Amino acid sequence: SVPFLIRLFPGVLTKFVYLNFLAFPFFADFRRPELLVNNTISLYLTTEPGVTVGVWHTVPGSRGAEARGRDQRWYEEALADAHPVIIYLHGNGGTR
């Protein structure tokens, strides 16, 4: 009966394979990364109409003292300096 149910509802298989309906850790507020990771802010990018992608920008520990207490504008300007940017793609879990 399982193959028959998968044939009827292919979306169910995707949910159980990738478990993208679970948010782990369960009670973390991913809109406030500074509570989880030092020197980090949350940004949102609009990639196309109706699609918004959440992004965390974390500066390295060597710039931690400089970043402490700064606002979003400082972090955006830090993206444009000569330091390298590493992009980490976390997958389809819906969390960062």
From TrEMBL:
This is ABD12 lipase.
